[in-house]
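Class, carefully examine what follows:
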Amino acid sequence: MATVTTELSAELARDLDRTVELLAGRRFALLTGAGVSTDSGIPDYRGEGAPKRTPMTFQQFLADDTYRKRYWAGSHLGYRRFAAAAPNDGHRAIAALELGGAANGVVTQNVDGLHKQAGSRKVVDLHGAMDRVLCLVCGQIFAREAIAARIEQANPWLDADGAVEIAPDGDAIVTDVDAFQVPDCTVCGGHLKPDVVFFGEFIPAEKYREASALVRSSDALLIAGSSLAVNSGIRLLEEARRRKLPIVIVNRGETKGDGRATIKLNAGTTETLVELAARLT
């Protein structure tokens, strides 16, 4: 890969040199957050300028049909936008780091599937993936495209091309949902839910074990585009810290892990990851 042509500040250039020296010869795990996907047009909950927003909780989704209507209407519109997004150079740099042997895989808090599209082979979707739908009663799994087709057939008035505000979890803000028909499970009639972890819902234990195993098998941890405000990210950082692994954080603005990082780069993820991939592979 070619190095980025963006002119680097003297401080960032020094931090990049230190990072390359720290990671060279080590196989590291990556932990990524929403900041990695912003250059693909997917917004960040907590980035600079991001609007304050309280996502629907799992408890609300379970408790009330109106909440399920609102969620599924917004989630469908958001999914259509997500499905049209393409990996950016940061995603491709992460795939190159794995292919070149510098990284042993990526744990992502994102649900957009862009790491796999970019060519990453070992991806742990810590918070699930938008392209799957799960029945909460019988456990049947459906392809999201099949559910999207059912939604569009039952709700032809829903404008998938209209101007809507999209959130990083793939939800969109929709207010008029009284007429919306929620899809149900064709096997048992149970409630369906995208196979993503809602606010107020626990990460499946086996998924966290997979992420933890990736960190434990690494010589360092590189965190990119995450504010580490979600507990799952902090837990993985703590696992690395307890094992005395070098920890590098790349993120614009502060994160909850800055005080525990060996190196913190206050920089954009795309240009930084491209530069690291060019130097380490």
